[in-house]
Amino acid sequence: MVQSLVESILAGHHPRGARLPSEHALCAKLGVSRTVVREAIADLKAEGVVAARQGSGTYVIDRPGRKGFHLKNVEEVDVLEELRHILELRKVFETGVAELAALRRSEADLHHLEAVVAAMDRWARQAAHSPAKGTTGAQWDDEFHLALARATHNPEIERFQEYLGAKNAAVHRVLWGEEGQVRGWPLVANAEHREILEAVRAGDPAAAWRAAERHLEGTADRVAEVLCPAENPVEEPSAPLERVDG
Hints:
Layout: H1 2-10, H2 23-30, H3 34-46, E1 50-53, E2 57-60, H4 80-104, H5 107-129, H6 138-150, H7 155-167, H8 169-176, H9 178-183, H10 185-201, H11 205-227
């Protein structure tokens, strides 16, 4: 999918400054799902090839070819060490996001985060009683973490969080899909989200950092249970991270 878009840009079909077709149009043209399209666009954003303009669309801002940051999709990881590195990256980055959000969040940010957590909670409680085949609450998980990044009011943090979310889409589908519903994981994960939200609401960066750390460690445990054989669990990413104040 990424290669198809790169070839199209290099061929001049989407010159610098041009707006890419909508997600719906790209899905229809390439015969892929919206998730695949979003992951491909996230890759191109990370490489500085395209950029989103709020309310307008996604535009080409550079030609492909420069060496940009690239992270494997979780489903492409074939060794435990690589998975450990990805989980460690998330832990380092997203604890900092929560910490900064606690310092910078606005009332509008809090209102949106509350709405997302409430929607997740309603979905998770319903799923706990009656797991639904073919449905997933992963979109709420994605939106919570993206909303938290927006609450930092740093567009580069938001952009990288969007990229991370796309790269972890397979994990989200497992944890929030039918298998995760049967295990009761959506309720557990959303309780962790609520802890992060309350620390951010209180304007307590240290508490937000700790709540995010607990959530990401819980996520790592759940990922290991699904993606790794019982005899080869994922090692802890590292010794518990310690905050350095000042």
